[in-house]
Design a protein that fits this description.
Strand order of the largest sheet of chain A: 1-5-4-2-3
Shape of chain A: globular
Oligomer: homotrimer
CATH superfamily of the largest domain in chain A: Aspartate/ornithine carbamoyltransferase
Distance between the termini of chain A: 14 Å
Largest sheet of chain A: 5 strands, parallel
Number of helices of chain A: 11
Number of strands of chain A: 10
Structural class of chain A: alpha/beta
Chain lengths: 306, 306, 306
């Protein structure tokens, strides 16, 4: 059923019902109990088309594909592809679909993955589309939360950083709206959630508040999800300079939190979290990278297996 | 016999007789009736050395290699290789031949592949050498024409666009010269076929004409093969600006063509063909990408299998 | 024992005793008598993180990994990785270790590999760290010398070129200090060995001399190891221009050498060795590339096999 519903691919967190999320979380958990490697996708080819640079997401998908016995082709920068020669997304996709059984795509434009899926005969996985979405990151974030001992229903979660341009945050908020929980959006005024995102959340009846400081609410949070202020999203470099050091989470902050509190970050981080807390059991941002593999194995298995 | 003749690799379309072409076309057709994947090249390593960016050709070769069970190493831009440190082609080749069983190479200089083959102990496949040649593209073009219901002998084919710098066009014209057909070369005056290319064609006794307009002859054509005006080949950007919009093939043009007419393009396209005709059965440019896989599987199997 | 000692990886030539060297040379020799391909590392993933460009070293490791049945993920330039977004080495490593069973890393900073190994749970292989070290190159150099008919004990070896910034040279000198031999360091005054390197060599009691000319001693040498003057290491381009043509080894020079004399170079070369001697049996620089594969297979097998 998941397979049929998502046969065109994983485009937006908005396509996921609570049942869809629970299904893929369960599948990812099963991947963790299996042998590390399998031959499930032997003979399948995944194309990773990264029009924007990435370490984490690209290597994570490629590792997951290899663990499942499959092969990988692709590029890691728009510079080395035909986009440089002026080719449209539609043309690139209608070409590459002949070379592969599925396409993972990152692109600087919002809506790029959706447009790609309209033209493709193979599944498209959105690995980040401009400031819009990054649904597989949000799925692995939910896997991390639940595997690290917390429940989604009843959760008090703060999401802090660049809520305007942060695609990870947008997809995460949308997935969370399927649960009964409280979200605190924390950001400088310039980087608050966009109206259209707030509208979606209001319609979904999720309870959320907005704030510009995290210290007041720190003691009630179960999770604080921090994101990087992304220089590359700012047209105005002065605006970036003004907000880039808005938050630096330190050991002192950590002392204010509950015992079961967890701090998360999709990485890369610049200075939003002080390295002095990296070894705390409350810091689970490197575990997110770990949980990325079973989640991506689950998604690839679901979409590409015969 | 093909294997012996081409043991140094696929360097130039000029090395192909009609028998050679028919042999490799037949082998590519056989690839299409086989299982998608095989283990024929298990344990073999293909090096893809792209000193110039490419999406299509590189990913097509890599996909073909994986479908045959082989592995791939390489680079996708001259920037990340030792060429940047000033290394000669000969030295790069004499190094990489130790790491691989065959080398696919694209290079900005005409004659680069030929020079590489002189130094290499493993087969070299020319994936584009400057404005000179792109023989494997021409071979897949012939596969496309014949698989899409047309015969090469007796064909009326127009080749339009950048005939001066277009390496695809040069290799295609040379391969076609092995058949009894009529070629119409259509281009702005600045981008006509070079004298040395015309001389070769005259010697081969192929019948060809040159024109600067396609509308007059459209109704007699079986195939119109359009190429991109390549900005990167122009030393003079003003010359590029003057000719870049010379041709835009539209629905109106398509209406003037025969029933069995086909329009082809090696891609990427910029605006030479209006997207409004993409879904016509006469538009087979995305099928060319499809036929690239069996043709490259055939070539790799021929050159690399024990 | 080697496996236990080097479980954190191959970081510095200084970690190697004579026994360690002999052990891995023997293992590399065994790789040369085995079948070219094996399934020893089937299911293992190697991450190649090249923050600096490389053809040779990266492709050599990737080829070795494929020959052992393993898979590869990675990047070939710092531009396409999260380093560009400002991520620390520690964070990159703590992420990528979740995706792979071992990491090969090249980085512009001296000490980068050592720092990486402090954070990593998987073995790190130093594929070049700034002007500091390049230990696997030095190991393959020793394999080349011994396989090409020379003995390390009693050897008269000249090492010529950029001894200040040349990482290959630093690792080679350190490995050689485990043997009873004579080293002649030859360089322009500006590029002599650094004091700290000389101090280490003095402590190891290796016999060495420094010179600015090679012609006087050419007739007593068994090996002359020439390195490129690396433009990218010079802060001052004028200094580079002054020294870049200091040495050009020609046929005339070769005529002055012993019968069993060998000339080596880690490549890429610019003009330090005249191409006219490439075909001499005394020129074994392309064989170094050949011996890189068995040495890297030996190292990967040792570090990554279960």
């Amino acid at each position: 059923m998941f397979k049929e519903k998502f046969q065109e691919g994983i485009i937006s967190a908005r396509d996921f019902t609570r049942d869809d999320i629970e299904y893929i979380l369960a599948k990812a958990r099963k991947m963790m109990t299996h042998e590390k490697n399998s031959e499930l996708l032997r003979g399948k080819i995944l194309a990773t088309l990264f029009f924007e640079p990435s370490t984490r997401t690209r290597l994570s998908f490629e590792s997951a594909m290899h663990r499942l016995g499959g092969s990988v082709i692709g590029f890691s920068s728009g510079d080395v592809s035909s986009i440089k020669k002026g080719e449209s997304i539609a043309d690139t996709i209608r070409t590459v679909e002949n070379y592969s059984d599925g396409i993972v795509m990152r692109h600087p434009l919002e809506g790029a993955a959706k447009m790609a899926s309209r033209f493709a005969k193979v599944p498209i996985i959105n690995a980040g589309s401009g400031s819009g979405e990054h649904p597989t990151q949000a799925l692995l974030d939910l896997l991390t939360i639940t595997e690290e001992g917390l429940k989604l229903d009843g959760l008090n979660i703060g999401i802090m950083g660049d809520l305007k341009y942060g695609r990870t945050v947008h997809s995460l908020a949308v997935l969370l709206s399927n649960y009964e929980l409280n979200v605190y959006f924390i950001s400088p005024k310039e980087l608050m959630l966009r109206n259209r995102d707030k509208e979606f959340l209001r319609q979904s009846q999720i309870k959320f508040k907005e704030a510009t400081q995290y210290r007041d609410i720190l003691s009630i949070l179960d999770v604080l999800y921090i994101t990087r202020i992304q220089r590359e999203r700012f047209a105005d470099i002065e605006e970036y300079e003004r907000v880039k050091n808005f938050y630096v989470f330190t050991e002192e902050d950590l002392a204010q939190t509950k015992d079961e509190f967890k701090i998360m970050h999709p990485l890369p981080r610049i200075n939003e979290i002080s390295p002095e807390i990296d070894n705390s059991h409350k810091a689970i941002y490197f575990k997110q990278a770990f949980y990325g593999i079973p989640m991506r194995k689950a998604l690839l298995a679901e979409l590409l297996a015969d």
